[in-house]
Amino acid sequence: MTTRKERAASRRRQQKIKTTVFVAGGLLVIIAIGLLLFRNSPTQALGPAVVGQPLGDFSLTDISGKTVRLSDYAGQVVLINAWAT
To answer: Is residue 84 in some structural domain?
Structure first.
């Protein structure tokens, strides 16, 4: 026959296991979503810029919300000022 303390300890262990499984499952979901988002990122397919080589076409949203592509400025001089934090 189990004592009250043993039953309480058993419930705590079961709750800890449930919490651990829930947290691990949540982390797996977050990781999967992140991988899906970054896998479809158009910048991944471009590769690094190489000095003296043409830059691959890409699109950005300007400050007014309009989407512009690098190819929209073909034949013009374009200054790209990229900042990162």
So the answer is: no
Least Cα distance to 44 among 53, 32, 56 occurs for: 56
Query: What span, in angstroms and rounded, lies between the C-alpha atoms of 34 and 39?
Result: 8
What is the reported pTM? 0.40
Using one digit for the tens of pLDDT, what is the confidence trace for 24-45?
999 999 988 887 776 655 544 5
Q: How many domains are there within the chain?
A: 1
Burial class (CB in 10 A: 0-12, 13-18, 19+), 58: middle
Radius of gyration in angstroms for the set of CA atoms belonging to the chain, rounded to a whole number: 26
